[in-house]
Amino acid sequence: MRIAFFVNDVQTEKSGYTTTRLAYTATNRGHEVWFIGANDFAYDPDDMIRARARQVTPRKYKSLDSYLRVLQGPTAIEERISVRDLDVLMLRSDPADDAVKRPWAQNVGILFGQFAVRQGVVVVNDPTTLANAMNKMYFQLFPEEVRPRTLITRDRTEIRHFAKEEGTVVIKPVQGSGGTGVFLVRPDDLPNLNQMIDSVSRDGYVIVQEYLKEAEQGDMRFFMMNGQPLRHRGRYAAFRRNRSGGDLRSNLHAGGKKAQAIVDDRALRIAEIVRPKLVADGMFLVGLDIVGDKLMEVNVFSPGGLGSAYEFEKVSFSGVVMDALERKVQYAQFYKRVFNNIDMATL
Predict the structure, then answer these.
(1) Cis omega before residue 135 (within 30°)?
(2) Cross-strand bridge partners of residue 88
(3) Which CATH class is domain 136-142+215-315?
């Protein structure tokens, strides 16, 4: 299998990233694995999509750290490859990371991924539906049964009214990730609400959400693959993120602490409710952020944390992901690459 991982920047990847773990697993299985950054694509005059790509020297690697050192070091193999010759292109960039300094880079993977689909490459997650998920408005397309009560607006009066009605709310920007620009607004905080709105609305529309009391115990990252809970040897790919101190955010790079997750009937019910849309949208690998019986977010761009799930469950979920991609490549070969990418992405 020839597989390429599209990332924001190859040199900023880290050994703990899920992308590195997936690439490491694929390389050690003997697959041809390439990394492509946002700067690296080209649409050539012969109507071919090519990319300046990097790969490690093919061999068995003993650790994620040693694998990444070679990938980012001077001995890495650099080559201008034709995207058409790939079997799989996995889009693993986070558009929010480029929102401020490189806004042009936010949709690069989507644009070139769409061309790759036309050339018969299996692209996951599907780039056309990823374009619809570029901000948190995508979340509102899931059934309200699993969503917190939400207002999206730029009107201060409407925000203030909703906050008074709910008692305690969370406000955050439509764009962004990682807990950036997230505020908890209690009744006593209403005098300062305008300043919070000003801070969040600089980036566009404001999401105002009911506060879920269970969020005080953190949340659970729960992985879905091919529209089903990602599971191996009876273990679910999931872990908890508990808050640090009084911080509202449980994101790990916002100070949250990891813990083992208990996947209960409520989480499985949420997974079943969102399954049809994930399948219909060609969302191969997704991270659900769950609090109690509600979803806080559906992460379709480079969901991270497979390593954290492995830490607690002690099974190789990255191997299961590779198994699924290998099967997709076989299907594509059987049918001479004549397929609908959305269907193939979750088959």
Answers:
(1) no
(2) 3, 122
(3) alpha beta
